[in-house]
Amino acid sequence: MRILGPETPDERELREWFESQERGNIERLEEGAKTIIQLVTGLYGVLFAVLALSDQPAYLQNPVVRWAGTVGVCAFFASLIAAMLVALPRRISYQKDNLTEMHERYRRLQGRKATLLRAAQIVFLFGMACLIAVVLVIVWEW
Fold first, then answer.
1. Residue 26's closest CA among 104, 111, 124?
2. How far apart are CA 110 and CA 126, in angstroms?
3. What is the residue-wise DSSP string for 10-32?
4. Which residues contact 37 (CB under 8 A, 6 or more apart)?
5. Apex 139 CA angle, 74 and 65, nearest 5
6. Rounded to an integer, what distance in angstroms lies between the CA atom of residue 106 and that of residue 58?
7. Contact indicator for 113, 90 with CB cutoff of 8 Å
8. Closest by alpha carbon to 142, among 66, 73, 65?
9. What is the pLDDT of residues 4-22, one digit of tens each?
10. Is 42 a residue whose pLDDT tops 50?
């Protein structure tokens, strides 16, 4: 970091790039949450179709299918809730003339959204693993 002298064009470009990344960060987190919501919605259909709740096929007697299907439904639901908490607007109060407080509130908002999105992603992957387990057990008749 330069202490003295004017900012070089490379330094200015780097600073401006970081500022643009910071400005778009909240939107990217919310778009990621919306993507997870869409994926969960679609995969719920797949999981419920595989489980065929109305006919009670023989493979539903398999304990692996039952447990993995149940855990998968719950994991997708938890992922959906976490992603929705990222995307839902939330009231933030701050003093408009206090830049330090504004910066701290922004960092807290960004941290909350990032943490919830990370949780949604991890639980979503766990739900996907359960769905894959259900499909493999059914296909290979284990």
1. 111
2. 24
3. HHHHHHHHHHHHHHHHHHHHHHH
4. 80, 83, 84, 87
5. 30
6. 53
7. no
8. 65
9. 567 788 777 766 776 776 7
10. yes
Length of the chain: 142
Residue type, 61: Q
Question: CB neighbours of 76 closer than 8 A, spacing ≥ 6?
Answer: 40, 43, 44, 47, 124, 127
Helical residues (DSSP H) of 6-98, grouped into ranges: 9-51, 63-87
Helix axes of 9-51 and 63-87: crossing angle, nearest 10 degrees: 140
Residue range 42-49: average pLDDT?
A: 81
Closest CA to 127 of 22, 32, 13, 46: 46
